[in-house]
């Protein structure tokens, strides 16, 4: 359940969305993506209100979901073709984009393999490719680096920066605070369904008098004192 | 006119359907069905459809034989086959519409794509029409052409009329199935939807079983409420189809709104989120007597997934009408003492448990969360013997023990206590023997394999052979065993001995099957060979 969350995302911004498990990060992203109905409040994407213009909003966003749910019997190429065509991408451009993205992700030779034979990282790359194919204005990334190897993770981080430079808006939800600190211009922290912080990583560090984003997160989400919890687990294992 | 040309696109557009995405989705559903990804989700692939069509063709031909003795009028003939079409397709289409429309995986993949509900629903309905297009003509092809020889007054245009009418009836049945799920999606909360959908899927089976009672009730009661006089009845005859059409349109429109969002929400709210955290006393007993923590694991794991696994619960829909009809038979005079010398439902009852156990055994291996079975790879191979006993304990307790305890309480009102105890001991022995036998059909860890739908042929032989064996056993029971208390007691004692032997060996086979299916057997093969120092 989300309460009184209000923020605006600017063009070309990379905004990190942080919060403990169950805080409401994925729910927030799903509401913006038009796949989760909100009971009250207003959500507008590119001045289009949701849920009234959900189809138009979906046309303008790219979404990488938290769970890599795919049609397992399709090949990587077929899945990307489906997503591109559903977004109305012209066929020649679509094939060129698929070829270029798969080549960059190192999946060219695997494109005719069924998705049920893909590894977790390969599936994640397909999801990221599917989110980008139609050149969306707003990109919603829910744990996009999950399962990726180091090289692929570096590639995606660079890609995010390049897309922002192209004027794309990126909302990046993650638990990996180092990455968020490094690539995001702005950080939103959600805790128990409420937005408890909104600012640049440097600004948040300064206002909370902490030296790292991890410390800021601990202080703001009351998880600073995790040591007793660790002690309880160790003593339970000894029993 | 080209099917996918601009003219058709304009027609689709005028209906609020986005033509390019409609064709894309239609191709997607066909492709997924052909690759057997959405089996049972309107996903009958070409081969399955053709096989089903041949079966329907034979059924249609056999149904014609019923009209050989007295030639029917065209109206009677058409009415009978329309009814047969609606009933047979109803069983398939309600289940398939449920699977197709209440399918969270599809919702999760497609919900964030720019597809509006009307386009998605239209694609689903077209796919459904394809299924009907195979089955309805197959069922009616022989009757339509045989009518020229069978009807009292045949006419040349009856065959196309018959085919068109029955196809329309089949299509309407499919649309009503979709409309029904449209209402469910609209009005039932996501956390309850899957359970309600399962109950709905059971309705056609119940309707077929109690067709006679329903018909009598409709004719006698509703017929009595209708206004007298031909004008009143005419208004009713007009009003009923209008109401049906309105219901159909409203139901399908319910699908068209934010359908994909609702379905994708099922993935998050499907099970209701929370489950009661309670400690089972029976599990304590199982752990104490059947092998410690691994036995408890087998008991608790299987018990929880039997309650919560959607795929398993769906497969068990077939059992419920059987149990309901058993209950009805018992209520209608099945409580006669088995030693009274007349046949009653009570003679069949132990074997109903056998049928129920068989259906559970062939279904329990498949689960929605089959990918989670990797956790068993980490368990020591030695744990599977006790795990198997835990699973056995659960099946015995829930399907054999508890129903017999209830029967004890009920039948003690009607029979002498000695007869109740002897009959229950006999029924328990027979049921336990069935459990020991069907345990061999559980080919691996429960809920560890992907659900498949094409297992009917594999088990057909067992079902036919089992049915004959049950018929013979019921006959022996009635004509021989329950004619004397002493003989019944002796047979019961022998049966318990058999139970002991069969269950012991089946439990070993079950544990081996689990290890084998996990691939652990290969790791154990070292135990077979002993290295000998030179």
Question: Average pLDDT across residues of chain B?
Answer: 79
Number of strands of chain A: 8
Over the alpha carbons, how many angstroms does the gyration radius of chain B reach?
A: 27 Å
Secondary-structure arrangement, i.e. CATH architecture of chain A: 3-Layer(aba) Sandwich
**CATH H level, superfamily name of chain A:** P-loop containing nucleotide triphosphate hydrolases
Low-confidence spans of chain A: none
CATH class of chain A: Alpha Beta
Verbal overview:
The complex is a heterodimer of chains A (239) and B (534). By secondary structure, chain A is of the alpha/beta class. The mean pLDDT of chain A is 87. Chain A has a 6-stranded mixed sheet with strand order 4-5-6-1-7-8, with helices on both faces. Chain A has a two-stranded antiparallel ribbon with strand order 2-3. Chain A has a single domain (14-238), classed as 3-Layer(aba) Sandwich (Rossmann fold), CATH 3.40.50.300. The radius of gyration of chain A is 19 Å and the shape is globular. Chain A has 10 helices and 8 strands. Chain A starts with 13 loop residues before the first strand and ends with a helix. Chain B is mainly α and 534 residues long. Chain B contains 21 helices and no strands. In chain B, helix 5 (104-110) crosses helix 11 and helix 12 packs across helix 13. The longest helix of chain B is centred in the first third of the chain and has 34 residues, at 117-150. Chain B starts with 5 loop residues before the first helix and ends in a 10-residue tail after the last helix. The model of chain B is unreliable at 524-534 (pLDDT under 50). Chains A and B meet through helix 2 and helix 3 of A and helix 2, helix 5 and helix 11 of B.
